[in-house]
Design goal:
By secondary structure, the protein is of the alpha+beta class. The chain has one domain (about 15-135): PAS domain (Beta-Lactamase, 2-Layer Sandwich). It has helices at about 10, 35-40, 45, 60-70, 120-135, and strands at about 5, 20, 30, 75-85, 90-100, 105-115. Strands 1, 2, 3, 4, 5 and 6 form a six-stranded antiparallel β-sheet that branches. The radius of gyration is 15 Å and the shape is globular. The termini are far apart.
């Protein structure tokens, strides 16, 4: 099956960004070397697992509900995410998630590109997510 990517993951992001792909249910089908390095997991530990394996408990459910709505509708989602490493530490990333389409234009999965973000973006995201989490209680 040929897929059409919104980005050329091997050329554009080689070594600079965290890249992963999932199926339509959020199961990881690809993780680049940078994703493994940053998350502390190896490829075998990531592929076949739900992407929420790296979900930090500080992240409000509403943030992911909005993300899923956006990408299921076929749009690209952009936001800031706090992820949990295998060793229990965490890291913040600026994230963009887009659908992967086959040659017929049907959605077959999702691709995410992530990069480090600024202290200012982290502080803004922490404040927003704290409010969202408070509303969820």
């Amino acid at each position: 099956m040929n897929r059409v990517h919104p980005v050329d993951k091997e050329y554009t992001f080689s070594g600079r960004a965290i890249i992963s792909e999932t199926d339509l249910s959020g199961i990881i089908t690809y993780a680049n070397r940078k994703f493994c390095e940053i998350s502390g997991y190896n490829t075998e530990e990531l592929v076949g697992k739900p992407h929420n394996i790296i979900r930090h408990p500080d992240m409000p459910a509403a943030a992911f509900a909005q993300m899923w709505k956006t990408i299921k509708d076929g749009s690209t989602w952009h936001g800031f995410v706090k992820n949990l490493r295998k060793d229990g530490r965490y890291y913040w990333v600026e994230t963009e998630i887009a659908p992967i389409l086959n040659e017929e234009g049907a959605k077959v999965g999702y691709i995410a590109a992530r990069k480090a973000t600024s202290r200012e973006n982290i502080q803004e995201a922490e404040a927003l997510y704290a409010k969202m989490s408070e509303q969820e209680r």
